């Protein structure tokens, strides 16, 4: 059986704070229809694709912010997306704010908020759910910032690990699917956990401001896109997988997010890239057989990984500077 699939990334232009879910879902359905017309079997929408990037808005009591989250998928507002998936026989990935009542790590049942993504089969069934692990930004209002980035206030750290599911996609039969969300793409540990499960297709959405407010010195505009692409290309190459990385882009509530969504192959090559910062489809044909080369040669993990040398990765969170070497010391201090 051929292991070829056609994938689409559906980049979104800005979603303003006042834009209702119905309007947004209409845009998503139009993009999904376009993806279907171009032969795609899967379409990937960005992180928090149903609303504006609400973590930029400070809210004293997070309980007043529940309207930004989804408590059910599908809901009345999102049902047209699920109906369209069935109509066009296309699977889709979407990121959203999730509100759920479930026990916390201490076993206490309570309301919880996550930055979540799901992959939905063309039947409308949710095949895979992932909750963002690497939450950037800060918890409290930061008066020094022009624009807040309150992901640590709005979301708990994801508690599902980095799952990979083997599920049918289009004509290709089962495909090993995994997900990352936005900032996760910068962390090689996250990619490697997916790679260790033989992931073949990584779907990821992002909302990335085009200026870095944390930069002490100047971080050139173009390097913001470069760092995003560098991370995704390296992740795909080092883990022998395809990646579909999709932005919400443009000027949203006065804040600029970059676009430049890409589809990447296991050689780390960009197969397609968005050219606008608006609603735009990118499409590529992916031969999943290409995952075999890296997986069976340079990145044959069973043959070449040396876990005995990686202890620090799990034992240590922050970096620690070494003692200074002085003349007369032994090698390595
Ligand atoms: N959404 C998200 O994760 N954005 C981050 C930028 C955060 S800037 C405080 C990213 O890594 O793209």
Describe this entry's structure for a reader.
By secondary structure, this protein is an alpha/beta fold. The protein has one domain: Carbon-nitrogen hydrolase (Nitrilase/N-carbamoyl-D-aminoacid amidohydrolase, 4-Layer Sandwich), CATH 3.60.110. The chain has 8 helices and 14 strands. It has a 6-stranded mixed β-sheet. Helix 1 runs parallel beside helix 2. The longest helix has 19 residues. The protein is globular and about 75 Å long. The termini are far apart. The site of 4-methylsulfanyl-2-ureido-butyric acid (CDT) has 11 residues, from loops. This is N-carbamoyl-D-amino-acid hydrolase.
The shape is globular
Strand order of the largest sheet: 5-4-3-2-1-14
- Strand percent estimate: 25-35%
Q: Label the CATH architecture.
A: 4-Layer Sandwich
Hetero groups: 4-methylsulfanyl-2-ureido-butyric acid
Name the CATH homologous superfamily: Carbon-nitrogen hydrolase
Using the coordinates above, name the CATH class: Alpha Beta
- What is the subunit arrangement here? single chain
| Largest sheet properties | 6 strands, mixed
- Helix tally equals 8
What are the low-pLDDT stretches, counting only 5+ consecutive residues below 50?
A: none
Protein name: N-carbamoyl-D-amino-acid hydrolase
GO molecular function: hydrolase activity
Organism: Teichococcus globiformis
Keywords: Hydrolase
């Amino acid at each position: 059986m051929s292991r070829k699939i056609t994938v689409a990334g559906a980049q979104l232009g800005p979603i303003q704070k006042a834009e209702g879910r119905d309007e947004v879902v209409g845009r998503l359905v139009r993009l999904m229809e376009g993806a279907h017309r171009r032969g795609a079997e899967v379409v990937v929408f960005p992180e928090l694709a149903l609303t504006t990037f609400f973590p930029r808005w400070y809210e004293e009591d997070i309980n007043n912010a529940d309207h930004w989250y989804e408590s059910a998928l599908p809901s009345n507002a999102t049902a047209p997306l699920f109906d369209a998936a069935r109509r066009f026989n296309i699977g889709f990935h979407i990121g959203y704010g999730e509100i759920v009542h479930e026990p916390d790590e201490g076993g206490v049942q309570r309301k919880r908020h996550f930055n979540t993504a799901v992959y939905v089969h063309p039947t409308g069934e949710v095949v895979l759910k992932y909750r963002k692990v690497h939450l950037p930004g800060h918890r409290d209002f930061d008066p020094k910032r022009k624009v807040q980035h309150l992901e640590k206030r709005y979301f708990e750290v994801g508690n599902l690990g980095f799952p990979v599911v083997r599920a049918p996609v289009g004509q290709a039969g089962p495909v090993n699917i995994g997900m990352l969300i936005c900032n996760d793409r910068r962390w090689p540990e996250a990619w490697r956990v997916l790679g260790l499960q033989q992931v073949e297709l990584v779907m990821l959405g992002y909302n990335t401001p085009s200026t870095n407010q944390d930069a002490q010195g100047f971080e050139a505009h173009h390097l913001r896109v470069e760092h995003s692409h560098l991370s995704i290309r390296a992740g795909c190459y080092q883990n022998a997988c395809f990646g579909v990385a999709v932005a919400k882009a443009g000027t949203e509530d006065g804040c600029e997010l970059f676009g430049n969504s890409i589809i990447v192959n296991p050689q780390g090559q960009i197969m397609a890239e968005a050219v606008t910062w608006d609603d735009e489809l990118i499409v590529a044909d992916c031969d999943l057989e290409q995952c075999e080369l890296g997986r069976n040669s340079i990145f044959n993990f069973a043959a070449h990984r040396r876990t005995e040398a990686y202890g620090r990765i799990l034992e240590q969170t922050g970096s620690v500077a070494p003692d200074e070497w002085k003349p007369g010391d032994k090698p390595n201090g």
